[in-house]
Specification:
Elements (H helix, E strand, L loop, with lengths): L11 H5 L4 H18 L23 H10 L4 H8 L3 H8 L7 H12 L1 H15 L17 H19 L2 H6 L1
Helix pairs in contact: 3-6, 4-5, 6-7
Length: 174
Amino acid sequence: MTNKSGSRKESVDDVFAGRTLGQLLVDGFKELSGDLKSGGNIAKKYKVYDIAPPQALPDFEPSEALAARTTLNASQAVFARFLGLSTNAVRTWEQGRGQPNKAVRIIFRFIQEDPTYWKAKFGNLMAIASPDHSAGITPNRKKSIVDAPQKRRKARQKKHKLVAGRSPARSLTK
């Protein structure tokens, strides 16, 4: 697969190459360990951050959540999926009715400090999740992937009502 500039873009199959996620992580850490032991300049090969989270974060402002989400150009549902949380949690933060935990607030800060990196990372994750955007995670789409389980549940309930509503006498006469 190639991207717009003509260079080859790695697919999920290329990255995993028959390995499990666990094997991929172990291999990556072994490679990093070897590079660290060699004493070379790892900043040339890896994205390096000097991370020193502040001891105390300032009071939470709802604009933090909104700013992080809009930086990634994502809907509330897509942003919630990216964070591994519910859409309701993101909505609650943006409306000022609740606060995210410290880890999520630090992620918000990272997104604001290096938006280019996080936009690329977010885009890559979304492309892997849905290369053709058929999973409903495009920012402009009104319904999202979280609507799918609700639709399946309603279809099962409707089917159950039809089966439960049929009388045994009518089904024997047919």
